[in-house]
């Protein structure tokens, strides 16, 4: 065994301290979005949030690999749009800061990573793709200004071909924002659309069954887990 010299001992102690601090670093991820983030599933004409949703599955996967220091909080609110998140006009029951504009709400959050998933209600409320583009751009820019890593997610597709064509235009805006702002993208629309018989995995015209939420979480994990690793390594 080689003994540490007095000059090296403090360095070794500092390295152990830094390693211990890194090991205990809590990672907070906030997931914002509509009812597909909240985890709504429909059965026999009744729709409601289910514990088997993409956000819960994502936390399970991250904790399996990194322990309980990683937490993913679900701030999904049914029926909401990106403009409402930006302006603080969504459902105020979704947490004590839900009625605040995005900048104030995010400034009060300890999250290092924020997931953003919208598009379906923009279609249902006849919002234009340009309005959606402007809102998502502002959400991402604000997150960056506050030192948060934004991750954009495209919506899962909709079984109705007419609505889905309109949703594709919103999806194009999310892809554009991700490219322009150089933030990670989870392209759920492309992934789900490529699954064989994907419409059978939907519980209604917008909401996945638990099995599809599980598959969506796997796509989220592929993008989010490297960011968590970089946070733990101190390189993000």
UniProtKB/TrEMBL annotation:
Keyword S-adenosyl-L-methionine annotated: no
SUPFAM superfamilies per record: SGNH hydrolase
GO MF: hydrolase activity, acting on ester bonds
Membrane-crossing segments per the record: none
Boundaries of every SGNH hydrolase-type esterase domain copy: 31-214
Keyword Repeat recorded: no
Pfam families, per the entry: Lipase_GDSL_2
Superkingdom of the organism of origin: Bacteria
Protein keywords: Hydrolase
The protein's name in its UniProt record: SGNH/GDSL hydrolase family protein
Organism, scientific name: Paraburkholderia ginsengisoli
